[in-house]
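2 proteins. here.
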Amino acid sequence: MTHINPDLDAMTAVWLLRRFGPEFKDAVVKFVYAGSTYEEKPVDSDNNVVHVDTGWGRFDHHQTGERTCASQLILGWLKLEDEALKRMIEVVTEVDFEAADLRYPDAGADRYAFLFNERKIISGWQRRYQGQSDKHLEWGMVVLDGVYENLKAKIAAQGVIDNEGVAFETRWGKGLGAVTNVFGFMPLAQTQGFAVVVTKDPKKGHVRIHGLNQEGKEDIDLTSTAEKLKAKDPQATWFLHASKKLLLNGSTVNPNMVPTSLGLNEVVEVLTSA
C-alpha cells in the first residue's frame, strides 16, 4: 500500500521492495489517501499488507520529524550493502525531506523540467494522466531502473578514472583516455574538467573522442585530428560530428562502422600533436 499520486519517495520505496525484496517480487500494489491504511485497519497489523510512505507505520516517516524518508527506512530494513543504492536513496531523501532540487544552481531553468521528481516529470504525469496512480508507478519503476544502472556505471567509471586513466595535455586543455567500455567513464571525466576524453573499446576496438570546451581555452575543433587519424588508418570508419567536438569510430546507432587498428596511445599521440 502507498498513497495515491505517488511521489518520488513512494515510488522508490515500492521499487526497492519489488526489486530487492524477494518476497515482494509479485506483490500487488494498491493505493490509499495519504495517511490512510488499507481498509482502515491498524497499520502493520496484517503481515500480508505492507504500507510505505503512508499509514504512520514502520515504513512511513511523516510522524517522526527525522531526516529520513520511506525509501531510507526500507533500505535499512533490507540491509543491502550497495553503494549505488545508498547514493540513490540519499538523493531521494534530499528531494523528499529538504526539497534540495529547489536550491540547485539556476533552479528555475528549463533544463530542470527533465528532473524526475514530484515537482517536475511526475507532476506532469499527474496532470496529463489524472487519477492513474498505477500507471505513474509503472512508469516510475522503469525510470528508477535506469537511475540505478547509471549510478552503478558512475561508480565503475570513477574506478576507471582513478586506476586506468591515461592523462595527457592538448591545446584545448587536459585530456584523459582509457581502454574501457564502461558507459559512465566519458561523461564523468568531462564533469571533472577534462576537455578531451578518449575511449578504446577493449572488445570491439572502436574509438570515441569527445570534446568539451573549457573556460579560457580555445574552442575545440577535431577536424585536423580526424584528418590525421584517417591518414594513419584509412580502412577504419571515422565520423566527425557537425559540432567538430565529437569524433566517432564506433556507435551504438551504427554497428557497421569499422573499428580502427590504432591503439589508445597512438590516438593520444595524435591529439597531443593536434
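next one coming up
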Amino acid sequence: MSSTSRTNSSPGNPSLGSPWLWIALLAAASVLLSFRLSCATPFAALAALAALHMKRSDGLALVGLAWALNQIVGFVFLEYPHDFQSYAWGAAIGMAALASFAAASVVAPRLAHFGQPAMMAGTLAAAFVAYQIAVYVPAVVLPSSELAYAWPIIGQIALVNALVFPGLLLAHRSAELLGLTAARA
C-alpha cells in the first residue's frame, strides 16, 4: 500500500533511495506537464501516487513542489498575468492540490482490502473529486468562466489524470527497481 519511511540509501551512497531525489524527479516531470498542459496539470494523479506510495510528509512535499513549479512555469514562461486574480487562482489551485492529496490519503488505506486495482482507481477518483470541488469553491468569489466547469472540460481534465496516472505508477515502479525510491511495504 504505502512505502515505508525508510530508504534504500546506504552511508556510502546517500542519494539512492532518497525520497528527495524521487520527489525532485516527479516535480521535474510536473514541470514538463505544466508546459504541455498548463491549467490541466494532473495534480490529482500526482496526489494519488503520493498517497499510495509515499509517507505523508513526502507526499505533501511532492504536491507542494509540483504546484510551486507549475506556478513558476505559468508566470515566468507561459506569461500568466501578474494580477490579483491570477495570484488568487494560483493559491486556490495550490489549496486544491493539497485537498486532493488529503482526500487520497484518507481513501487509499480504506480501499486496500478491495485489492490493488480498486485501491488505485478509488484513490485517483477521490483525489480528482476533491480537486474539482476545491477549485469550484473559489469560483464563488473569484472571476472565472462558467465554461471552466462545464462537463466536457471536467471530462478532459479527468482524462488527462487517468492517462497520466498509469505512467506515474510505472515510473514509480521503475524508480523502485532502480533504487531511486524505497520499495513498498
